[in-house]
Every structure is written in structure tokens, then in C-alpha cells.
Amino acid sequence: MADEQVKKAHPNQPETSSALLDLGRAMVPAQSGDRSLDPTLADAFNPMTADAELTMADLVGDANGEIVLFNDSNVRRLVISSDAAVVADGQAGPHRTAGGDDVSGFSFVSFDNGLTLYYQDGLDLVVRAVRR
Predict the structure, then answer these.
(1) Residue 69 to residue 90: CA distance in whole angstroms
(2) CA atoms lying within 13 Å on the CB side of residue 129
(3) CA 92 to CA 13: how far, in whole Å?
(4) Distance CA 111, CA 115 (A)
(5) Are 108 and 61 in contact (CB under 8 A)?
(6) pTM of full prediction above 0.70
């Protein structure tokens, strides 16, 4: 039986995963002067790529048709596929939902089906229209 050698990290250097190294290499321009990114990373920079995606059927409003997203998971981008049209969006004034949530200052988007979605800063909400 042959002895296997296992390469261990130096005690003063943290171990680095190969995936992290591959990502770094893909983002650094090649020495040939190529300034393009690795095409496998294209989705990371696509504005329609989401950390999470929901459909309108996934959303259930309270008694007033309101939904609050608190984004405890630090999702950067959420895509909502909707057959309902957006009728208003902006920043909420002083307001408390039927469920008792204070959404003052939250961003919001209202749909023609009566649903209003409130969400916090830091979340990029994309509404993707679906044909009726």
C-alpha cells in the first residue's frame, strides 16, 4: 500500500477553497489583456438573476392585502413573476399593517389585484411580467 501525502495548510495561512480561487481568477483580467469576465459568472451580473424567485400565487396578503418582507436572510435580489400590473410604487409614509407591522419608510409596490408588498432597503425587487 502506497503512502498518501496530504498537503496541509501552513499554520499561519487559512485554507482556501478551490472554488474561491477559481472565482478570483475568473474576475481578474487575463494577462493577455482580455478584460472580459468568465462567461460562467455572467448570471452574477445579470439584473434579472435572483437570489430568490416567487410567483404572485406564492404571496398571501393580510386582511388589507398587504405583505411585508423583512429580508432576515439578506437576499440581495428577489424576482416576483406576476400577471398583475404594478399600479404604484414608492416609499411608505407612516403606516402600520393589519398584522401590526410598522412599515413606515419601507419601499412598496402595489398591484392591480389589490396586493401591496412592503420591503426594506437593501433588497432589489424585480417584478417580471407574465402574460395573462
Answers:
(1) 15
(2) 6
(3) 48
(4) 5
(5) no
(6) no
